Amino acid sequence: MKYLPKAMVLLAVAALAGTGFASMGEAATTKQKRFYSIYEVQKKKARTARTAGECSTPFTCLFRTTRRTGSGSFFTGFGGRGYRQTVAFNDPRYSPGSIIVRTPERALYYVLPEGEAIRYRVGVGREGFQWSGSSRIVSKKEWPAWTPPAQMIAREAAKGITIPTYMEGGPRNPLGARALYIGGTIYRIHGTNNSRSIGGAVSSGCIRMMNADVIDLYNRVNIGARVHVIQ
């Protein structure tokens, strides 16, 4: 019984405040509508800018994509997020330690013993930049620097996009956390700070992986490992 007066007081206060709470709800709804209105306007502007070919930085133009297969930022990879799984792999043409990139499948396989492989989801070259062949991994680098080939610089300049002739390695570098260099080519298997490109045909010939995945592959692959890119 001694708690009854306090409960009654609380009920009375709630009743008196009912109108105020309703007004607050209306105000919140108005703010919500205003927010979504602004959001739609900004979204429309961004869509228009993309259509017109405008970019906030050279990299948003150069590395933008239209296909999304994953979510998260560049740093998601360091939390263990990736696109890989162990699968059955019984092709006697490829020995353990080999890398096979199946371009149409958007997949890279690292061959394990006992008829298995690790399958990674990757981004591949866009139309006109896809290739096939066999080679070897000739070097590996952590946080690689980026030196775009002269053809790429000229090609992007013709579109009105200026890209640097050299960029130090680091979190903002387009090559991501690791790179494995394919002998006899200008191509690499590398990480990316654009998770949206995974599963797409968007690069200038390089094979892109989520940073978590390229770190995993980097730690497994030996210099001299065979690489087979299949169209």
Question: What features would you describe in this structure?
Answer:
The chain is of the alpha/beta class and 231 residues long. Helices cover 32% and strands 24% of the residues. It has helices at residues 4-52, 58-62, 150-158, 211-220; strands spanning 84-88, 99-102, 107-112, 116-121, 124-125, 133-142, 178-182, 188-192, 201-203, 207-210, 226-230. The strands form 2 sheets. It has a 9-stranded mixed beta sheet with strand order 1-4-3-2-11-6-7-8-10, covered by helices on one side. It has a two-stranded parallel sheet with strand order 5-9. The longest helix has 49 residues, at 4-52. The protein is globular, with a radius of gyration of 26 Å.
Features:
alpha/beta; 11 strands; 231 residues; nine-stranded mixed sheet
List the helices and strands and how they pair.
Layout: H1 4-52, H2 58-62, E1 84-88, E2 99-102, E3 107-112, E4 116-121, E5 124-125, E6 133-142, H3 150-158, E7 178-182, E8 188-192, E9 201-203, E10 207-210, H4 211-220, E11 226-230
Parallel strand pairs: 2-11, 5-9, 8-10
Antiparallel strand pairs: 1-4, 2-3, 3-4, 6-7, 6-11, 7-8
